[in-house]
Amino acid sequence: MGNANYAFRLDPFQWEGKTELQKEDVLQPSSEGGSAPGEAEAFLGDAVKDSRRLAGELVREAAGCGITRRTLQRAARQLGVVPERAGFGGKVYWSLPPIDATITTHLQKMARMERTQ
């Protein structure tokens, strides 16, 4: 008797029946349109390349592109985006760090990678 594969839905949990998919098919990254983190980094880098932007606006625009808030936050951390609050309890703006800070961060990451190899 061969391996039987079954499909199911998680929200709400529901069995859907048999499928031809193997576990490797389900676990591999999607090839459609690139990776979510890569898309989020490209979106965010382009959005703040010339000037600072309201974080709330960026979150809404990203959602319109299918990028979740959490993925956008991860992309911001990867890019070294600088959050800046305008006044006490004011709105939050995101911007890219000055170029020397970006180079320094990149060099530090490379040094850490070399130490772990």
Structural class computed from helices and strand pairing: alpha+beta
Tell the overall outline. Answer: flat
Proportion of residues in extended strands: 15-25%
* Average of per-residue pLDDT values: 77
Kindly identify the CATH topology of the domain at 36-116.
Arc Repressor Mutant, subunit A
Oligomer: single chain
Largest sheet: 3 strands, antiparallel
CATH superfamily of the domain at 36-116: Winged helix-like DNA-binding domain superfamily/Winged helix DNA-binding domain
Share of helix, binned: 40-55%
Q: H/E element string?
A: EEHHEHHEEH
Report the CATH architecture of the domain at 36-116: Orthogonal Bundle
Q: Give the number of helices.
A: 5
Q: How many β-strand stretches?
A: 5
User: How are the strands of the largest sheet arranged?
Assistant: 3-5-4
Calculate Rg over CA atoms.
20 Å
Kindly describe this structure.
The chain has 117 residues and is of the alpha+beta class. It has a domain at 36-116: Winged helix-like DNA-binding domain superfamily/Winged helix DNA-binding domain (Arc Repressor Mutant, subunit A), CATH 1.10.10. It contains five helices and five strands, in the order ββααβααββα. The chain has helices at residues 23-27, 36-47, 55-64, 69-79, 99-116; strands at 6-10, 13-18, 53-54, 82-85, 92-95. It has a three-stranded antiparallel β-sheet. The chain has a two-stranded antiparallel ribbon with strand order 1-2. Helix 2 packs across helix 4. The protein is flat and about 60 Å long. 13% of the residues are buried. The model has no long low-confidence stretch (mean pLDDT 77).
